[in-house]
Recover the amino acids of this structure.
């Protein structure tokens, strides 16, 4: 996985975790649990475009080659009896469709703002639907750039026109979530895709306030002084900013295209139980509630979103963040709510150098699905990511398909 991948940031945030021994044996691990015939389940794959992680394979390819590569990912999803493709269409405050708000993504033509000569999102929706796949439009709300040079952005980029909206942090540029005008703008920019295309869902990833960087401060003093007076702490104000974005985005989607869903894929630990008795039995170095100011538990319990896909990117038995314990915790959170629970799976770890021994076993991921199938609140899985589905170096995805995806399934609605 490349260092610029969104999941690389999440992994870097776990620097305090200690690798545990390999996966523990599960009762019945050799006999995969399958859902009854005729049921529905999420079988998804993320297609990351940031830094050309999954697609296009490199910037500047001819339009017809980009299109062929995209369709190959869709065909591969069909081959593996997946039913949902989550395509990153707004990776860095840019667009993979002709947007009146933001420039064309540099990951297409190689230069931000340059027309790639085709409409990737429109094509993706049409071709996915033709194959019986759902297409979820994946947006990163606040990330502007992977460096701190405003002058590298397209001349008409909103961040250059409104530098007061921008915060440099950790070697990157972000929109300031504490500014109401920023929240209104990013919502408008993302809803443009919903208005133009019959996407099945809008999908946010795990970046809200950025992951902590040691020795650095996210400079939102001016915004806090102006807008934070009604809150007992800066953290409470920041959480309210993110809560407002989530609620307003959900309302906007319902207004613009009724029936289109809204889902979020957060980092897998809301809070450790040592911090909050409602939290999970984990010792994670990052907690979304405290560090990213994302109250993911509340979004589920109050049904602000239609589905949640916590990134449970650890093996069964991992000491600091055990996959099995986290599945149980998230199932308990989702129980009795109308929010669908799917699990984000770290396919990219399977066979990767430097990963614990559990990830060198091609059966580890299949064990995840076997375990999760015993929790009725878990309605499916999403795999990170498309490049790894294609490569499948140790056959972990092939084992999942053989053990669990013998027949096609429709995604939950």
């Amino acid at each position: 996985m490349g260092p610029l991948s969104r999941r690389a940031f999440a992994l870097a945030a776990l620097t305090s975790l200690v690798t545990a021994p390999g996966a523990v044996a599960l009762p019945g691990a050799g006999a995969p649990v399958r859902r009854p015939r005729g049921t529905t389940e999420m079988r998804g794959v993320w297609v990351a475009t940031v830094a050309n992680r999954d697609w296009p394979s490199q910037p500047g390819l001819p339009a017809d080659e980009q299109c062929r590569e995209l369709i190959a990912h869709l065909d591969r999803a069909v081959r593996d009896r997946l039913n949902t493709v989550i395509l990153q269409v707004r990776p860095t405050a840019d667009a993979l469709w002709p947007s009146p708000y933001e420039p064309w993504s540099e990951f297409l033509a190689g230069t931000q703002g340059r027309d790639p000569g085709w409409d990737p999102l429109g094509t993706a929706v049409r071709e996915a639907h033709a194959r019986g796949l759902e297409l979820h439009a994946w947006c990163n709300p606040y990330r502007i750039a992977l460096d701190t040079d405003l002058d590298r952005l397209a001349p008409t980029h909103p961040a250059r026109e409104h530098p007061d909206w921008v915060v440099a942090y950790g070697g990157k540029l972000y929109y300031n979530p504490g500014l109401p005008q920023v929240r209104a703008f990013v919502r408008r920019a993302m809803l443009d895709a919903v208005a133009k295309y019959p996407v099945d869902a809008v999908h946010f990833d795990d970046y809200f306030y950025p992951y902590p960087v040691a020795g650095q401060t996210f400079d939102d003093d001016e915004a806090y002084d102006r807008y934070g007076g009604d809150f007992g702490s800066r953290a409470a104000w920041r959480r309210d900013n993110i809560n407002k974005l989530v609620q307003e985005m959900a309302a906007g989607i319902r207004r613009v295209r009724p029936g289109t869903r809204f889902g979020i894929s957060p980092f897998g630990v809301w809070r450790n139980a040592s911090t909050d008795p409602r939290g999970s039995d984990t010792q994670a170095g990052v907690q979304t509630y405290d560090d990213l100011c994302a109250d993911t538990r509340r979004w589920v319990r109050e049904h602000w979103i239609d589905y949640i896909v916590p990134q449970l990117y650890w093996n069964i038995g991992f000491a600091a963040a055990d996959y099995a314990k986290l599945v149980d915790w998230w199932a308990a959170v989702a129980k009795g709510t109308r929010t669908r629970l799917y699990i984000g799976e770290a396919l990219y770890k399977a066979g990767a150098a430097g990963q614990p021994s559990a990830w060198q076993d091609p059966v580890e991921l299949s064990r995840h699905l076997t375990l999760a199938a015993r929790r009725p609140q878990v309605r499916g899985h999403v795999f990170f990511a498309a490049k790894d589905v294609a490569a499948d170096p140790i056959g972990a995805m092939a084992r999942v398909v053989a053990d669990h995806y013998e027949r096609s399934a429709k995604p939950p609605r």
